[in-house]
Specification:
By secondary structure, the protein is of the alpha/beta class. The chain is 48% helix and 9% strand. Strands 2-1-3-5-7 form a 5-stranded parallel beta sheet, sandwiched between helices. A two-stranded antiparallel sheet has the order 4-6.
């Protein structure tokens, strides 16, 4: 295998490795759990891939510890509706799949603060998934695990407009609505706790369009329509206005350089909102 340049490795570390887990994309592939083969596919050494993923894992843990330095978060964590034995799943796209993303931070938060924690966490986020693709794999990736709680974090990629077909979103809004309805109805058949919906956040479109890795654009007006659909669902809605990345406009430090995926700061904002909303919902139910 030819040596991969440092520039390419840097791109892989930032834009590929956090959002790429072979076993998720190809669950029937016999070699899906062979990290040596996965590293070869990416053009890097096995130890390099392991080091990248160790860093992501440690970043998520450190972000959770930083959140626990905030008195409000520590207090609210005493009121979230988990006892330590639940199976908690999420179905989403690359923002969820992120190895240092909000779900991984939330996982660490619960495990750190819960005495004798025995949670099972299912991160069924797959990069670039639309609601259509997520609905197709809902049973295989989520429901088969008999979760007690399910997060749904979708819609960003429904709103993408391909560079070759810029006049329409790749998933029509009517289809996104139908997919959300189906997700809600099917999950409700299997899970007694309310669905926790995570709304799509704004995208810094200029940065996205300047990035040669992407062949699409995402605009705020399309995302606003998706958020309105999420806001009308049954369950717990996290940030119906999508303003956790900046109230006036998306703030750059909440994103990595593509303007689409979130930095640790951005992911921590999402976790803050989740903790607050779940604690408030539990208090209201009590």
């Amino acid at each position: 295998m030819a040596d991969t340049s440092d520039d390419i490795k840097s791109l892989l570390e930032q834009f590929t490795v956090p959002f790429f887990h072979l076993e998720k994309r190809f669950p029937l592939l016999p070699g899906k759990s062979d990290i040596k083969a996965e590293a070869a596919l990416l053009g890097i050494k096995e130890e390099e891939l392991k080091a990248y993923r160790r860093n992501l894992k440690e970043n998520a843990r450190q972000a959770a510890l930083e959140l626990l330095k905030e008195d409000e978060i520590t207090d609210l964590m005493n009121n979230v509706p988990f006892d330590g034995s639940e199976t908690i799943a999420v179905i989403g796209d690359s923002i969820t799949e992120d190895g240092q993303g909000w779900f991984e931070i939330f996982k660490n938060l619960l495990e750190i603060i819960t005495e004798k924690a025995d949670f099972t966490f299912i991160n069924a986020g797959i990069g670039a998934d639309t609601s259509t693709e997520a609905l197709r794999r809902l049973d295989r990736d989520v429901l088969v695990n008999e979760p007690d709680w399910v997060f749904v974090a979708l819609g960003t990629y429904d709103a993408q407009r391909l560079n070759i077909v810029p006049e329409r979103t790749i998933v029509p809004l009517s289809e996104t609505w139908e997919n959300f309805e189906s997700l809600q109805n099917v999950i409700a058949e299997y899970v007694t706790n309310p669905i926790i919906w995570i709304t799509p956040t704004p995208v810094i479109t200029q940065l996205l369009e300047e990035n040669a890795l992407y062949e699409f654009s995402i605009y705020e007006e399309d995302l606003q329509q998706v958020r309105q659909l999420v806001a009308g669902k049954d369950g717990v809605i996290i940030d119906s206005l999508g303003n956790r990345m900046g109230k006036e406009s998306p703030e750059a430090w909440n994103y990595i350089a593509d303007g689409l995926h979130h930095s640790l700061t951005g992911h921590m904002n999402t976790v803050r909102m989740i903790v607050k909303k779940l604690a408030d919902a539990k208090a209201a139910a009590d």
